[in-house]
Amino acid sequence: MASRTAPQSLASSVTSVAAITPAVRARFDWLAITALTGALLVGFIVRVWAIGAVGFNSDEAVYAGQAAALAGDPTYSKFFAIFRAHPLLVQFLLSVVFHFGISDVAARLLMVMLGLAAVPLVYLLGEELFSRRVALLSAFILAVAPYHVVVTHQVLLDGPETTLFLLTMYLIARYGATAAPRYLYVAAVAAALTFLAKETGVLVLFAIAGFALATPAWRFGWKRLLIASGVFVVAISPYPISILISNASDTAKQFLVWQLLRRPNHPFTFYAEVLPGALGPVLLVLAVVGVVLAIRRSAWEDRLLLAWIFVPLSFYEAWPVKGYQYLLPVLPALVVLAARVIDLLAIRADEMRLHADRFIRGRATIQRIAVAAISATLLVSLAVPTLASVSSGSALGSLAGTGGLPGGREAGAWIDANLPQGSAFMTIGPTLSNIVQFYGHRRSQGLSVSPNPQRRNPAYDPIPNPDAAIRALKVQYLAWDVWSASRSTHFATRLMEYVNRYHGRLIFEELAFVRQADGSVVREPVIRIYEVRP
Amino acid sequence: MKARAITFLAILALALGVLGPTPAVAADPAAINHLVVLMQENHTFDNYFGTFPGADGIPKNVCQPVARTGSTCIAPHHFPTSHSADPDHSSQSARSAYDDGRMDGFALAQADRNLDPSVPMGYWDGSDLPLYWNLAKDYVLADRFFSSAWGASQTNHLYWIAAQAAGGHGGIPPNGFDVQTIFDRLQGAGVSWKMYVQNYDPKQTFRSKDAHGPQVVWATLLAFPRFVDTPSLFSHIVDLSEYFDDLERGTLPAVSYIVPSGASEHPPGNVTVGQEFGVSLITAFMRSSSWNDGLFVCTYDDWGGFYDHVAPPQVDADGYGFRVPALFISPYARGGTIDHTVYDYTSILRFIEDRWKVQPLTARDASANSIAAALDLSQAPLPPSFPDRVYPPPQPPPAPARATLFMSYLVVVLLLVSAIAWLALPPQRRLSVRQLLGAVRRGR
Question: Are B390 and B130 in contact (CB under 8 A)?
Answer without folding.
Answer: yes
